[in-house]
Amino acid sequence: MATLPVAPPASALVTLDDVRAAHIRIADAVVRTPTLISRTLSQLTGATVYLKFENLQFTAAYKERGALNTLLQLDAAARAKGVIAASAGNHAQGLAYHGNRLGIPVTIVMPQNTPTVKVTQTEGHGATVILEGETFDAAHAHARKLEATNGYTFVHPFDDARIIAGQGTIAIEMLEDVPEIDTFLVPIGGGGLISGVATVAKASDRPIEVIGVEAELFPSMYNRINGTDLPCGGDTLAEGIAVKEPGGLTAQIVRELVDDIVLVNERSLEESVSLLLQIEKTVVEGAGAAGLAALLAHPEKFRGKTVGTILCGGNIDTRLLANVLLRDLARSGRLARLRVRLQDRPGALFNVARIFHEQGVNIIEVYHQRVFTTLPAKGLITDIECETRDKAHLDRLMAALTAAHYEVSPVELA
Questions:
Q1: Are strands 106-110 and 35-37 parallel, antiparallel or unpaired?
Q2: Rounded CA gap, 194 and 187, in Å?
Q3: Range of the domain at 380
Q4: Domain boundary among 326, 360, 384
Q5: Quick one: how far is CA 208 from the chain centroid?
């Protein structure tokens, strides 16, 4: 009876030597970003928290490492013909930037609905951008067609040993800077970053735990590893790790080397983006905040450990960032919208405003509603957006309004 071939172990697919070689190869062209302790986040979570600031790369994301490691290993013929990728995110910009720097033509295929800012950013790094299809799958299929037609080299965003080795250089730097790290907390999209980190961690001469983090809306690697069938899709703040199908190579490495995967919800991601800006004065995208979100959502899992997590990117739309910050202010009670029922008579709004003044609350906006309401014709609803010091201050204001016989209720966030 024929013997079935045995798949090689993960340790043979990408090795520590591969990652070390990548580290030497790319060292003079990527930023050696700092790994710094966050004393405030450590106090907040009960772990000793170190942050790797990959949002300080030139393109504001770690993806440069794997892209550059791949480009530097192409032969002269492949360099002359150029490379192609399907991406609307950080992989596209990292590949475009380093391809342009090395004189290698780069073509990026993006879905037709890609925001203009992402197209212009990628073109700004010297790439040719082709818009094709309504979905990423359609863009990917077109990229593979152009690869075959034009002889381009396709550069996958995560399912490639060269990409994985490049991303693993992050762990080498973190352990050189902070040898006492005993737990890596790593965002997972397709799995390239965590595969590289785990390759380094598990080759260490001491036990180092590797925990992956996925958004609850996109638990694709979690499903693959655990044999579950959780729904995968939706609008997540962590669009950089919103991957419906993880890689085959990365899934094999994750299965063998990663200790656990945890899921985080959108509220935790929003809170983490806001905290990193407030506490560390650094801007991260949703995916970059996933590690902190896991620390906040699962404190018992990390309490007492020395945790290294990666702020993997800082490319977040400024309008989205503003929304996240305002929503966080609202959840903490520092910003509120109160719905007050009034009688439509002279002085009604003045009397309410006087209570706000007496309580030291700043009124930002006032919205009167006389027509679209179920109240009688002489009644009206007033929404008052206001700024308070904290939740206790807001509670005192609402108590004062109630004591003055006003019907008042907060307009809650989702």
A1: unpaired
A2: 7
A3: 334-410
A4: 326
A5: 23
> The domain spanning residue 394 has which CATH number?
3.30.70.260
| Low-confidence residues in the chain, pLDDT < 70 | 1-8, 10-11, 369-379, 413-414
Predicted TM-score (pTM) of the model is 0.88
> What are the Cα distances from residue 25, in Å, to 18, 122, 162, 191?
10, 24, 11, 22
Q: Are the C-beta atoms of 73 and 97 separated by less than 8 Å?
A: no
Inter-CA distances, 72 with 68, 78, 94, 356, Å:
6, 11, 13, 64
158 within domain boundaries: no
Distance CA 149, CA 170 (A): 35
Q: Could you read off the pLDDT of 83-94 as tens digits, one per residue? A: 999 988 899 999
pLDDT of residue 303: 97
- Cα separation, 63 vs 187, in Å, equals 13
Q: Which residues contact 206 (CB under 8 A, 6 or more apart)?
A: 182
- 363 and 401 in a single domain? The answer is yes
**For residues 72 and 26, what is the distance between their CA atoms, to the nearest angstrom?**
8
Task: Name which of 317, 276, 46 is nearest 183 in CA terms.
Answer: 46
| 226 & 281 share domain | yes
Q: Is residue 63 part of a domain?
A: no
User: How many whole angstroms separate alpha carbon 171 and alpha carbon 18?
Assistant: 13
**Which two tokens mark 249?**
């190579």
For tokens 């094999």, the residue is 252
Alpha-carbon span 340 to 337, nearest angstrom: 10
